[in-house]
Write a structure and sequence with these properties.
single chain; about 70 residues; mainly alpha; about 0% strand; elongated
């Protein structure tokens, strides 16, 4: 969404209020910044554990059972 689209949807007063509140917000911690960086750079892996998963060749295939 572009700035112009946000402005058209929210209106100038709301956008100004958001900017004022954002100025008052504290700086994020280093840990939060690192977590955000990981999510942005690799969004599909954001919620995975740190353990490596099995390679595709070692992953068992699930075949559908017989139809009734």
């Amino acid at each position: 969404m572009t700035r112009e689209e946000r402005l058209a949807i929210l209106g100038p007063k709301t956008v100004a209020a958001i900017h004022e509140r954002a100025k008052d917000a504290p700086e994020p911690s280093d840990e939060l910044g690192e977590e955000r960086r990981r999510i942005i750079n690799r969004p599909a892996r954001a919620n995975r554990s740190t353990k490596a998963s099995a390679p595709a060749a070692e992953t068992p295939l699930r075949r559908p059972g017989p139809r009734a």
